Amino acid sequence: MMASLFNNIPLMIMLVGALVGIASSLVGTFLVLRGTSMLSDAIGHSIVFGIVVVWLLTHQASGPLQIIGAALTGIFTVFLTELLVSTQKVKKDAAIGLVFPVLFSLGVLLINLYASDVHIDAHTVLLGEIGFVWLDTLPIGGVEVPRALVSMGAMTALNLAFVAAFYKELKLATFDSALAKALGFAPTALFYALLLLTSGTAVAAFDAVGAVLFVAFVIVPPSAAYLLTDRLWKIFVYASLIAAASSVSGYYLAVAWDVSIGGMMAVMTGVFLALAFLLGPRYGVFAQWLERRRQRELNESRTLMVHLYHHEDGPEKAVENVTMALRDHLMWDPARAERVVERSRQRHLVVQEGERLHLTQAGRNLAREILEPGAKAETGA
């Protein structure tokens, strides 16, 4: 049964894609929250240099040494970036744009000069092909298991263990690095450890989805999750679910439309981001529109309460506290005036007798809260 499970090619492809997405989201969440998510792009390109250097030294095109070497290259990329920023001559985004093209170019040159006859291809490293992960297998317990599934499973477990072990420290270092440093949490060391894992994830992922598509999984699912919640642990959960859903839906759409599987998976992360942007419960466009509408309706009700309260005990009450006065004095058209009065009646703020409007006690209290600070507390007492 286990062998038949690993022989299920569509399942293996979707599972590898989901693991790439989850592993990337675990480290990407902190990069997004820190505002340094584009470091993943720099790392994703510069690891080409690390991969070819490790091959030149060890003649190994895959395995733990490749992951370690490329991970160190990612750290080296960030170190050079920070070194340039420390000169105060360039800003951080410009420093990133200066460093990773140099390392990537050096990697491509080294491939062309010394590794042209070896299976190290810059195009493959950047774009990958997740549809072929089932061809490269490892014998485990007598069962042929896709190599990408093993490597991404290990990286996902490692990233999850790191986040679980240092959750509080990472959270504090992300949102208040000064306090984290004062408490002795070494936020800089934590950040570099996070980048080391990001680099290792990029290397483990490049055979499956490529370094460029890996960047999409690092940035987009956490960004979409951030639009859905402010709770950090929920961001991890939502980002992982979005990554898994992107892998499954991306696979089936790619098969249906005969396009790149990895590319469609990355596109689907963008689709989920767009949905979160539009339908997010707090920051979504629709939710913001509803909130603005609610505030507008509330302000209209408040305006009506204040108007009626001002004239409630005056001799002009018969003239001012009628619907016609709302149109003339508040410059409301008849439809708007009727709409505001009806909403206020439903909220039991006013009572209407023909054209005459009378405040209820709730409406009177609302007007006092606006006009007389502390009135709410007094009426509550």
TrEMBL record:
<keyword id="KW-0472">Membrane</keyword>
<protein>
    <submittedName>
        <fullName>Metal ABC transporter permease</fullName>
    </submittedName>
</protein>
<feature type="transmembrane region" description="Helical">
    <location>
        <begin position="261"/>
        <end position="285"/>
    </location>
</feature>
<feature type="transmembrane region" description="Helical">
    <location>
        <begin position="64"/>
        <end position="85"/>
    </location>
</feature>
<feature type="transmembrane region" description="Helical">
    <location>
        <begin position="12"/>
        <end position="32"/>
    </location>
</feature>
<feature type="transmembrane region" description="Helical">
    <location>
        <begin position="235"/>
        <end position="255"/>
    </location>
</feature>
<dbReference type="Pfam" id="PF00950">
    <property type="entry name" value="ABC-3"/>
</dbReference>
<comment type="similarity">
    <text>Belongs to the ABC-3 integral membrane protein family.</text>
</comment>
<feature type="transmembrane region" description="Helical">
    <location>
        <begin position="203"/>
        <end position="228"/>
    </location>
</feature>
<dbReference type="InterPro" id="IPR001626">
    <property type="entry name" value="ABC_TroCD"/>
</dbReference>
<feature type="transmembrane region" description="Helical">
    <location>
        <begin position="148"/>
        <end position="167"/>
    </location>
</feature>
<keyword id="KW-0812">Transmembrane</keyword>
<keyword id="KW-1133">Transmembrane helix</keyword>
<dbReference type="InterPro" id="IPR037294">
    <property type="entry name" value="ABC_BtuC-like"/>
</dbReference>
<feature type="transmembrane region" description="Helical">
    <location>
        <begin position="39"/>
        <end position="58"/>
    </location>
</feature>
<feature type="transmembrane region" description="Helical">
    <location>
        <begin position="94"/>
        <end position="115"/>
    </location>
</feature>
<keyword id="KW-0813">Transport</keyword>
<keyword id="KW-1003">Cell membrane</keyword>
<feature type="transmembrane region" description="Helical">
    <location>
        <begin position="179"/>
        <end position="197"/>
    </location>
</feature>
